[in-house]
Amino acid sequence: MNIQQRSGETKGEFYLEKDGEVKAKMTYSKLGNTQIIIDHTEVSDELRGENIGKKLVESGVEYARQNNLKVIPLCAFARATIERDESLQDVLRR
């Protein structure tokens, strides 16, 4: 599965398409040049149980690392995913 990214000036998303339709996505907002706010994650019912939501969050964390950004996970799913996995916590804004 190929997670893709779209990024605008103030917002962006990581998403997964299947048959030309977005089936999962995690959206974020940019907070200046140093932070992103993960504000929403959703996965279609047909992909549930495949850890797609976690993979979206991991993609966001990797993006933050590559761009020297801190993450504010307002989305409850993203927050819980990061809190459960210590290897993802280095990007959290403290």
Structure description:
By secondary structure, the chain is an alpha+beta fold. It has one domain (3-88): Aminopeptidase, CATH 3.40.630.30. The chain has 2 helices and 5 strands; from the N terminus they run ββββαβα. The protein is globular. The termini are far apart. The mean pLDDT is 96.
Entry summary:
The chain is of the alpha+beta class. It has helices spanning 52-66, 76-84, and strands at 3-7, 11-18, 21-31, 35-43, 70-73. 26% of the residues lie in helices and 39% in strands.
Secondary structure: elements and pairs:
Elements: E1 3-7, E2 11-18, E3 21-31, E4 35-43, H1 52-66, E5 70-73, H2 76-84
Parallel strand pairs: 4-5
Antiparallel strand pairs: 1-2, 2-3, 3-4
Salient structural properties:
94 residues; alpha+beta; Aminopeptidase; five-stranded mixed β-sheet; 39% strand; globular
**Structural class by secondary-structure content:** alpha+beta
Summed up, the domain count is 1
CATH level-1 class: Alpha Beta
CATH superfamily: Gcn5-related N-acetyltransferase (GNAT)
The overall pLDDT, averaged over residues, is 96
The coarse silhouette is: globular
Strand order of the largest sheet: 1-2-3-4-5
What's the helix count?
Answer: 2
Low-confidence stretches: none
Largest sheet: 5 strands, mixed
Instruction: Using the 3D structure, state the CATH architecture.
Output: 3-Layer(aba) Sandwich
What portion of residues is helical? 25-40%
> What is the fold-level CATH name, i.e. the topology?
Aminopeptidase
**Could you tell me the number of beta strands?**
5
SSE ordering: EEEEHEH
Classify the beta-strand content into a percent band: 35-45%
Q: Nearest-angstrom radius of gyration?
A: 12 Å
The oligomerization state is single chain
Cα distance spanning the termini: 32 Å
